[in-house]
UniProtKB/TrEMBL annotation:
Keywords: Cell membrane, Cell projection, Developmental protein, Glycoprotein, Membrane, Signal, Transmembrane, Transmembrane helix. This is V-set and transmembrane domain-containing protein 5. The keyword Glycosyltransferase does not apply. It is found in: Cell membrane; Cell projection, Axon; Cell projection, Dendrite. It comes from Oryctolagus cuniculus (Rabbit). Residues 1-28 form the signal peptide.
Length: 200
């Protein structure tokens, strides 16, 4: 009759050990959770450019991916989806966003108003989540510079054309003046020769 309690203790010890092992495994899995990698946290773009907000994540199971946008213009949700399913894109970004299974999104034909902070949140089914931010700056400086350069070059070309025309006119005038002078010199020398002949 006495051996039974020791067997019961062994069974209880085995059950507790198994429970502790399961708990440790669950904790280690949960501690690993979601990892998120953002290769380019800052992106500079110009108006009408298509840009890629590139990220990569790893987690257990299929996560929920959500992108939000905040700036001085306001804050709004852009898109939410689970990889392999259809994305729920907000009305403000319809036909302007393309999603990828690695969590990245592409924005088409960006404008100055698209400048701001893009926040991605990856949430796995166990409840752990990870978020990251990409700063996008969209400017028109390149186009303004090209416009300025084009106007400046056109102005220089016009000035060069005017200067060339003036040089051509001055050259013609100088040539005519020299011809008249030569002609007068010829006439005066001819008159002198004639006078000398008459005196002789």
């Amino acid at each position: 009759m006495k051996p039974l309690p020791s067997r019961r203790r062994k069974t209880q010890g085995f059950s507790l050990g198994l429970f502790a092992l399961c708990l440790a495994t669950a904790r280690s899995l949960q501690s690993q959770g979601v990892s998120l990698y953002i290769p380019h946290p800052t992106i500079n773009a110009t108006v009408k450019e298509d840009i890629l907000l590139s990220v990569d994540y790893s987690c257990h199971g299929v996560p929920t991916i959500e992108w939000k946008y905040t700036s001085s213009w306001g804050a709004q949700k852009i898109v939410e989806w689970k990889p392999g399913t259809q994305a729920n894109i907000s009305q403000s970004h319809k036909d302007r966003v393309c999603t990828f299974d690695n969590g990245s999104i592409q924005l088409f034909s960006v404008g100055v108003r698209d400048s701001g902070y893009y926040i991605i949140t990856v949430t796995e089914h166990l409840g752990s989540s990870q978020f990251g931010t990409i700063v996008l700056h969209v400017s028109e400086i390149l186009y303004e510079d090209l416009h300025f350069v084009a106007v400046f070059l056109a102005f220089l070309a016009a000035v060069a054309a005017v200067l060339i025309s003036l040089m051509w006119v001055c050259n013609k005038c100088a040539y005519k003046f020299q011809r008249k002078r030569r002609h007068k010199l010829k006439e005066s020398t001819t008159e002198e020769i004639e006078l000398q002949d008459v005196e002789c």
